[in-house]
Write a structure and sequence with these properties.
The chain is of the alpha/beta class and 350 residues long. The chain contains eleven helices and ten strands. The strands form two sheets. Strands 3-2-1-4-5 form a five-stranded mixed β-sheet, sandwiched between helices. The protein has a five-stranded mixed β-sheet with strand order 8-7-6-9-10, with helices on both faces. The longest helix is centred in the last third of the chain and has 33 residues. The two termini are 27 Å apart. The relative contact order is 0.19. Bound molecules: 5'-O-[(R)-(carboxyoxy)(hydroxy)phosphoryl]adenosine and zinc ion. Zinc ion binds next to α4.
């Protein structure tokens, strides 16, 4: 079974082919970073146009990479939300057109489910598992119990994790995208010179918050006035330590909640762009080993937005008979846990 997956929910245009034996046959990702950099963030209209310009070519290249034609493909999957509506419509409309022209089924994939199921593609893990989803638009802890079966244990009360990194980088004048810039600067920084507070330390539950940390950072930068490269590196290191520490501490609480639901399922999966952060991975590895959990982190290329995760989630749905009609409408907001209360800022970037 082979599925073609299309991703266009934010600023990556991607097309990939995945087979049910967990082989990625092709995985083309085009980052639009350079087009958005002058604006310091993603511009929806520029993103939608870029998806439109590049998607057809990327699909053709993916098929060429895999030495396949569309005849060999069993289903066409596209990221149908949450995300920027213009980009989603480009991907979904393209997928529907291919499905209609070839007579193959169409699968509408929740972008977050793509992130959530990636560890089953890369590591073949079984349900259930605890998922920390940390991306540009999300920061949540979920119990993943099956395809389409998610229970949210905690979520951010303000900014998403990647958003916090991006804002911190902007405050420090480190450029866009912020996560990799903070990580690079932090490598030569001293986190003890300007320590920053850990949000929600000792507070019950496993929700997240970055606004206090962001404020402390803003005050510190204001107090120092002109920043030297040394200052930037030291502050980036402090920010990264506080953010990674916060994420790990709240995840430890999530583990206790997850234990009460699934006593024997001790796997923690980290997904989303921020999972590429090495300091976070170290902090989570410590937390996991302290709680007797196995930590699974997909390779960075599959943590940030890509087509393989959409193809895989599409494949998982397709083999359960979960296909969608050609009247399926893209959803700018689309929570994984339909029963949970609405999230702050959800759906802007996934
Ligand atoms: O999952 P993703 O590629 O896009 C979506 O949000 O769906 O995540 C992008 C986010 C950005 O906010 C970026 O700054 C952050 O992930 N990020 C990082 C790192 N690499 C990317 N944050 C911290 N450290 C990194 N190395
Ligand atoms: Zn994403």
């Amino acid at each position: 079974m082979i599925v073609l997956g299309i991703e266009s929910s934010c600023d990556e245009t991607a097309a990939a082919l995945v087979r049910d034996d967990r082989t990625i046959l092709a995985d083309r990702v085009l980052s639009q970073e350079a087009e958005h950099r002058p604006y310091g963030g993603v511009v929806p209209e520029i993103a939608a146009r870029a998806h439109l310009s590049h998607l057809d070519r990327l699909m053709r290249e993916a098929l060429d990479d895999a030495k396949l034609t569309l005849d060999a493909v069993d289903a066409i999957a596209a990221s149908a939300g949450p995300g920027l509506i213009g980009g989603l419509m480009v991907g979904v409309t393209t997928a529907k057109a291919v499905a209609m022209a070839t007579g193959k089924p169409f699968v509408a994939v929740n972008h977050l489910e793509g992130h959530a199921l990636t560890a089953r593609l890369t590591d073949g893990i079984d349900f259930p598992y605890l998922l920390l989803l940390v991306s540009g638009g999300h920061c949540q802890l979920l119990a993943v119990e099956g395809v389409g079966r998610y229970r949210r244990l905690g979520a951010t009360m303000d900014d998403a994790a990647g958003e916090a990194f991006d804002k911190a980088a902007r405050l420090l004048g480190l450029g866009y995208p912020g996560g990799p810039a903070i990580e690079r600067a932090a490598r030569v920084g001293d986190a003890t010179r300007h320590p920053l507070p850990r949000p929600l330390l000792g507070k019950p539950g496993c929700d997240f918050s970055f606004s206090g940390l962001k404020n402390a950072l803003r005050l510190l930068v204001g107090r120092l006035g002109t920043l030297t490269d040394r200052d930037r590196a030291d502050i980036a290191a402090s920010f990264q330590a506080a953010a990674a520490g916060h994420l790990a501490e709240r995840t430890a609480r999530g583990m206790t909640m997850f234990d009460a639901m699934h006593a024997d399922a001790r796997t923690l999966v980290v997904a989303g762009g921020v999972a590429a952060n090495a300091a976070l991975r170290v902090a989570l590895a410590e937390t996991a080993s302290r709680h007797g959990y196995r930590l699974v982190v997909p390779p960075p290329r599959l943590c940030t937005d890509n087509g393989a995760m959409i193809a895989w989630a599409g494949l998982e749905r397709f083999r359960l008979g979960l296909t969608d009609g050609l009247d399926f409408a893209s959803r700018p907001r689309w929570p994984l846990d339909a029963g949970a209360p609405p999230l702050v800022g959800a759906g802007v970037k996934a």
